[in-house]
Amino acid sequence: MKTLMEHRPKVPCNAPYIPEMYDLRQTDLVMSSVKLTEEFLKEQDGVIIITAHSNIDYKNIVYNSYVVIDSVMLFPILEAIKFSEHK
To answer: Model confidence over 77-87: pLDDT tens digits?
Structure first.
């Protein structure tokens, strides 16, 4: 995150159990959790899933994101969501 933010892109995050994060990895980086609304997701260049939570609406993420990078192997579940709705 620090490396990304040094190049000035906006790097919002969603952390359902942590509304604000600070002193990340001994930096002055402070991040506030954002809601994953349809409008918010459509405004982003992409989404990276780095932790799986049971209270996240992954269907909303799949349908409203330009690109989804799945680092926790949710892809089979996400594909099932997509295909089950398009039959």
So the answer is: 666 666 566 55
Where does the chain have alpha helices with state H?
Answer: 2-6, 38-43, 58-64, 75-85
**Environment class of 87 (CB within 10 Å of its CB; exposed 0-12, middle 13-18, buried 19+):** exposed
Q: How many other C-beta atoms can be found within 10 angstroms of the C-beta atom of residue 11?
A: 13
Domain ranges of the chain: 2-85
Select from 63, 25, 29, 31 the least CA-distant residue to 47. 63
Residue with tokens 């994953």: 36
What residues does 22 pair with on adjacent strands? 30
Q: Determine if residue 56 is left, alpha or beta; phi over 0 gives left, psi from -120 to 50 gives alpha, anything else beta.
A: beta
pTM of the model: 0.66
